[in-house]
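INFO batch 0412 | record 1 of 1 | parsing
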Amino acid sequence: MDRAQQKLVLHKKIEDTTEALKQKAQDYKELGRDALLIGGVLVLGYSLFQLFSDDDEEQEVETTEKSESFISSSLKGVATSILLALAKEKLMEYIESLDKNEQ
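INFO prediction complete | emitting tokens
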């Protein structure tokens, strides 16, 4: 094969690959459009259901705030302190290594 034939073969491969990518993009576009349509129909159906449902009264949800126990707050504090100390140590080592590299 001479150079011109190789060039033609490569251009053909490029065109085929480009066409395949365009086709995949078109397929994804159609799939996305269908997914959006289905999602919209579901949202519309749910909102219509909520609008016409007999439950006119809003149900009140009672929430109780749980106070954090002393042990868990202490453990969180200790863990935070340890992690901050380790981070400080690593940063100091890194700064020292930068200083050594500059010298």
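INFO post-check: The two ends are 58 Å apart (CA to CA).
INFO record closed
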